[in-house]
Amino acid sequence: MHLEKATRKQAKIKMSLAGSSGSGKTYSSILLAYGLTGDFSKICVIDTENMSSSLYSHLGSFNVINLSAPYHPDKYVEAIKLAENAGMEVIIIDNATHAWSGKGGCLELHEKETAKMRIPNSFTAWANVTPLYQKYIDAIVNSSCHVICNLRSKTEYVMTERNGKQVPQKVGMAPMIKDGFDFEMTMSFDLDQHHKAFCTKDRTCLF
């Protein structure tokens, strides 16, 4: 334990980008990562989206760790450590939602724990799952790298007026992750279908 002067350069950004399909999460996160480090070779994408990040390899020579189902939280922790040990400066988790609601994620693990009980108790079943989720969150928050978490949002349609006519427009709603995830982030953005970002949290005061 020691006393030292706080400096902004010491902080590592933990950022979330939430949006529905097509809002530009992957593309935006790669550009943001480059803005943070200025070197594509120091960026690693943990890709759970069927190698979709590789479609943007023309942007620069970033690194990829491809994860497939089941999306157990421990897989993400292992991938984060792998990227850190390789000397990466920015880690993009694309998509962080899968650790929660994807195949083999926390919600499915919870269902299995509940089903194993002689007398099913949903509340008690979380006792074995919550530590796994917390380990995943701790790996993100305590990472020595900047971390950008892409989150899927529930998709809904609203009617908007265009050229005098009512037309459906896809909008992203709440991020598909456990409540409270945003508390762990330095900054959070919501992306709409026009690729506009709306800042919902910002500890840096930049936005």
Q: Give the helix level as a range of percent.
A: 25-40%
For the termini, the CA-CA separation is 33 Å
Low-confidence parts: none
Q: Specify Rg, calculated over alpha carbons.
A: 18 Å
Label the overall shape: globular
How would you characterize this protein structure?
The protein has 207 residues and is of the alpha/beta class. The chain has five helices and eight strands. The chain has helices at 25-37, 73-85, 98-101, 106-116, 122-141; strands at residues 14-19, 43-47, 63-66, 90-94, 146-162, 165-175, 187-191, 197-202. Strands 1, 2, 3, 4, 5, 6, 7 and 8 form an eight-stranded mixed β-sheet that branches. The two termini are 33 Å apart. The relative contact order is 0.20.
Keywords:
8 strands, single chain, eight-stranded mixed β-sheet, 207 residues, 29% helix
Task: Draw up the topology in text.
Elements (H helix, E strand, L loop, with lengths): L13 E6 L5 H13 L5 E5 L15 E4 L6 H13 L4 E5 L3 H4 L4 H11 L5 H20 L4 E17 L2 E11 L11 E5 L5 E6 L5
Parallel strand pairs: 1-5, 1-7, 2-3, 2-4, 4-5
Antiparallel strand pairs: 5-6, 7-8
Helix pairs in contact: 2-5, 4-5
Task: Give the structure's gist in a few sentences.
The chain has five helices and eight strands. The chain is α/β, with parallel strands linked by helices and 207 residues long.
